[in-house]
Amino acid sequence: MITKVQMTEAIILAKSEKSVGWTDIAAAAGLSEVYTTSACLGMNHLDPEPAEKVAEFLGLGKEVAEALKAFPSKTWDQIVPTDPLIYRLYEIVGVYGPTMKEIINEKFGDGIMSAIDFTMDIDKEENPAGDRVKVTMNGKFLAYKSW
Questions:
Q1: 120-131: pLDDT as tens digits
Q2: What is the C-alpha to C-alpha distance for residues 3 and 42, in angstroms, rounded to an integer?
Q3: 132 is known as an active-site residue
Q4: CB neighbour list of residue 44: distance below 8 Å, 6 or more residues apart
Q5: Taking a C-beta distance cutoff of 8 angstroms, is the pair 62, 7 a contact?
Q6: Of residues 17, 49, 114, 132, which has the active-site annotation?
Q7: Maximum alpha-carbon separation in the chain
Q8: E strand or H helix at 17, and its extent?
Q9: Which one of 17, 49, 88, 132 is the catalytic residue?
Q10: Which of 26, 57, 28, 49 is nearest to 39 (CA)?
């Protein structure tokens, strides 16, 4: 069995060699672009059918499909990432996280937004002043319970 890191390396190489995008891979899997990409990068798993479809689409072996099916350990190597795009997302949460929490709590009550019962879409919005990145996160509200 190969590791999630080896799986991701094989997928990235095949993606480049075949000149395909994440949208193409997601279409082959029959899943969303964001979720499929996350699974290919090792942060989520795929059920057997989509895992086998991704491996077949990319011309990769059974070991990649098996690694895609494996449940991940969701860990980060760094406290604050150094990749500029990922760092900016941390910056957004650092600056606006307390605001988001206050507004969510005011509108819904004491609780959190699920990252399990969750979807995310990333879109490009063309704008004459410079194209915009549009990230839409949609998570189920989970109220804290008293006991």
A1: 999 999 999 999
A2: 9
A3: no
A4: 35, 38, 72
A5: no
A6: 114
A7: 56
A8: helix 4-18
A9: 88
A10: 26
Q: Is 27 exposed, middle or buried (0-12, 13-18, 19+ CB in 10 A)?
A: middle
Q: Above 80 in pLDDT, residue 77? A: no
**pLDDT for 80 beyond 90:** no
Structure tokens at 46: 């795929």
Residues ≥6 apart with Cβ < 8 Å to 113: 104, 137, 139, 140, 141, 142
User: What is the crossing angle of helices 48-58 and 4-18, to 10°?
Assistant: 50
Q: Which residues pair with 45 in a beta bridge?
A: none
The amino acid at residue 125 is E
pLDDT for 76 beyond 80? no
Q: What span, in angstroms and rounded, lies between the C-alpha atoms of 125 and 114?
A: 26
Dig out the tokens for 58 from the structure.
């990319």
User: Which residues, 6 or more positions from 136, have their beta carbon under 8 angstroms from its beta carbon?
Assistant: 120, 121, 122, 123
Concerning whether 114 is annotated as a catalytic residue, the answer is: yes
